[in-house]
Specification:
Chain lengths: ~250, ~250, ~250, ~250, ~250, ~250
């Protein structure tokens, strides 16, 4: 079910075993070849793909598209929520719906920069409301293997406006890909320093990180289908319920 | 221009005389006949209508759909941001884009409950960044007269899930109107008490306020066209610039 | 009753049907002819006028004189609370007294810039404590008609340090009006742009907005008497109780 | 000078060597014999006394009467600001006036419970704006000796609604003292435990702490005159300027 | 008992009459002769001294060493928490342990700058959780007399990196005292101005305040032993319980 | 260098190429066999190990031991900072030292629950102060391979109070290990659900997660030595400087 299209008595009538699915994205620079809404488009598409397959098990909310994108702000058109605002939005959605009796939540994320604030916000909610069952993941998280299989460039995982994201956009919204601007960027070998915090204008020349020139629709389709399948499996497991200790 | 579809170099290349247009809506109960996304759908439609007519003067952002809807939370499916989060989101969008040099902003609002926090947030921004030109209004604000002309019920202005909003939805998204559930509600005459703060479950039986049974697509079209025209005029005036003292 | 003058056992003994009346004002520039405390003086005077007529129905608190006046800060002597502090003060007063069992509150406001934060703060309180009955209004709100009748200049409503406020001060505190400095200011016709956020140093030359040179004590008395009468009526209605649905 | 009564051009014209004097008080229970506004009345009276003697050296603001009184909230009629709101109000006043070029501030406090938040708030301001000269004190602080001389009961310092405060109110506002309700309370000998945080409903029976039955106008006058004299001396020293290192 | 060394079942097994002892210190400049951790070292040493003598009555937590030291930030190596963070840490410790059923808390403080935020934070906690018994004091507070007896310089109380603190460090951690750098500083006579807020770079030349050249281990031992004895007495009284009214 | 032991002139004299090393830990339940300070003890030990080998390249601060441990609060003795307080402490340390000119920071973390708030806080700092070089990692992060080699139980990575942590404590602080209480817990196979947020009382019986009964000092030594070596390498790389683009 898509929450946006329901009336309140229809929501009221839903089973509380249904899993609330909340897509989180961003509106941030994705190099010269992908639109700023890329992460939101992809997270929404994966969520819609799963909702379409098991609509009775899922209550999908609109996408929280205003992400935590401070590391991209040097590039025009990037909109970034403050961390407090970003976490507040996610918290507001969950606390609204738990008031209506919903107990199962899953956040499907399209922007790596949201991972940490998602974790912080969800842990705070869980500590306040321990009865809720809450999970979160990048749509790309559970399909790391499938993604590595598909990618041809040296980077075998999703980076930013890279081979994988370009491929996904070629599959989902090919009209928005500037094919003549596809660009490899941020390719410098990693130094012998780990765990560093970086801004994208420190790491790249035009904002992307990876081998976007290798993007192909078929690669996008493979990753997308795997991501939808993984999410369907996750939502089904949550819907059917699971107990953690003693199962 | 629609920001979501642009790349960052395309945003970078825009004139800074362009007016950033930010739609604000809600995801809140609209009675048994309209979907919870009504306000967001309508604000977005008016904004897109204006953007389509003067695309070179407008940079339209995605809709801030998570509104300040605490007074509707008793009804299932309502999502409400805390006031801080709501104001933080609006502030984040403007402060991101002013960093990129944009100076003209207009917020087109579809949810009455956002008016006050919009005002508070924008005044705080203006005090910090006095060089910005910032305006805000409900899409229905400047067309009060046209709306009154069109409405047949006793209420001559937009209320909530009322004759006007039902008509607008019949014009914009007729597929989402539950025509068999149209309902008049919240019709009690006003008591001799003004300025009271109310929750919608105090004022109505099923959440709507007004004469939705009188909704008609043609009324919606009339209000919509007037709202788009008014917004185009406003954005054009802002784009061309105006000075306040001594003009 | 005036809270400030009572002892706690006297407060404890009051009926909880009594309406708590909270005046809100400002300490902000009012042009070269009116003192910075004008809004606080006027809101307090109207509140005292009502309390004097129906003391048993009203528990009047001291005036929250530190208003939300950021748009006046360019002028010396303006004191402005941050929005959080302003809203926090109003919230603190109400939450203190609701702990003592009071349930009915009315805020009588003397400063237009407080309207929006009053609304935001009161809505937050109402959402937390739905059993409270809370209203708010400018003292000038319910007497718009009487005010328009009295004013001779082109502006038919209260602006700032204008014909109306100058008249009111001539009636209430004539000793504080600099009659030799009365000044018309901010008179420029409105541009074809609505809903703009402005600072007073953008709109005026010396801080006032309207035709203060037309101020007269008799006009002030007429507006003041009407405002007191309207407030008495409002407080009486609240004291006697009213139900919203089904009355 | 009293800020409340000035116009902005008059404030603008003041010397920036003038000392801004900010009274802080409370609206909190003071036993069955003194009104809830006692602290605000006394701090204001001392401030006005000093301002009257050296008006050209002092710019007195209205009294911040909403104090940090959470420890009195068990008694009806007590209004308490949250700590954030209380500190925010003081910060807002100083930051407003420092924008207008004022550099010297003194807070004269009438409520012991404000001492710590005054200290915290002022230190934060000083760290942000090191060029400001800021001081604060209870009006009773520098006259501890004179107070001890005057008091006849076993407590030789100001407590709460005690011999000293009752005496001061008999001198300043005798009409507000309930002479038939004067009461000694909270007289238990101190246990062998220091530094404990207590609520007033833990320590007293009816809210006062000390020997109010010993209150006399002449004692109040002696303390008051000493407090005004001490404040005049302080403000004069600040006005004339002093350097800390190497003087 | 030292909390740090216990397992959770051991903590669970403790009597809830035990007093939680929380040392608060700082990491801030202490002149050229004492290390930046001086306050934390001393508060910890006093706490450990008391815990060693009555381990069954005390549950000592690790030291909150990140103090409120903004007034020392001009000197390199000073770490200062914001006031909110400082108070939040203390609040977090107490609210964690009260969840586990502990009701008696005492904060032993080694840094004067923590006194006010300790008071503000603890009052907020007490207002929220009135059943808790909470006290706080500098370790030097109850031994003012013993300290005055011991000190030979003109200052008869603890200042900063002074005769007393140098002596204490010579007793507790002589290896960390730079004996060749001992220095008298900040000795200027007080001006006729009281209650002023100062930064240490305004008051001193090299950061210390007092006669450190007079420091001697024996003086430190005398103060330290008295401080431990006083704390033991306090903790014992709290452990045995005391009632405030009617004891 | 250990900051705690330095005087401010000694800190002032340091090269600003030095890397500030900040250990972060926790005070939280670690099952019936390890003390609540385990994470802080281990992070501190690793940091001290690195500092001892390259003291001139490192300025080690005291350990931020109050971690984000809300998911352990059901177990007595766990102290948890609120997320705001936890992030505020880390921010305060860095912002204090950057004021003194230090530019290179590395956080060595001993508690998995701190990873996300560390990331959020450091990203906020980096966005405000882009010139800083900031990194963070668990001490166990870069030695995942060495750890897997050493562990004999089914879990090949650090969990909580597990084979690895028990071994490390047997190496570092054997006196604090309750060898008779070593326990395997939380061993249930993972369900087909990923990314779930859990409290430790949902996942375990007595708080530990993993095969602590397999703990051995030699395993601890191997992991510890590898962790120290990895950190030394990291700090050296940061000290020598590296450029991200074009190196």
């Amino acid at each position: 079910m898509k929450l946006a299209e329901l009336t309140w008595p229809e929501v009221e009538a839903l089973s509380r075993e249904i899993v609330v699915l909340i897509p989180t994205g961003s509106c941030e620079q994705h190099g010269p070849h992908l639109p700023v809404f890329t992460d939101s488009i992809l997270a929404t598409a994966v969520a819609e793909g799963a909702e379409a397959r098991i609509p009775d098990r899922v209550l999908m909310t609109p996408t929280l598209w205003l992400g935590a994108s401070g590391h991209h702000l040097a590039f025009a058109g990037t909109l970034s929520a403050s961390m407090d605002t970003y976490m507040g939005a996610l918290t507001s959605v969950i606390s609204s719906l738990q008031r209506h009796g919903f107990r199962k939540f899953f956040i499907i994320n399209g922007h790596g920069g949201n991972n940490e604030p998602n974790g912080v916000a969800l842990r705070q909610i869980k500590e306040q409301l321990p009865a809720l069952m809450i999970g979160h993941s990048g749509y790309y998280g559970p399909v790391a293997e499938e993604t590595a299989d598909v990618l041809e460039g040296p980077f075998k995982e999703i980076r930013h406006a890279c081979e994988a994201e370009a491929s996904l956009m070629m599959h989902i919204r090919p009209d928005l890909v500037r094919k003549d601007k596809l660009r490899d960027d941020g390719l410098a070998p990693e130094p012998a320093v780990y765990g560093m915090i970086h801004l994208f204008d420190e790491m790249t020349e035009e904002g992307s990180l990876g081998y976007a020139t290798l993007g192909m629709p078929a690669k996008g389709k493979a990753i997308f289908d795997a991501a939808v399948a993984a999410l369907v499996k996750q939502l089904t497991a949550l819907h059917e319920g699971y107990v953690l200790r003693g199962f």
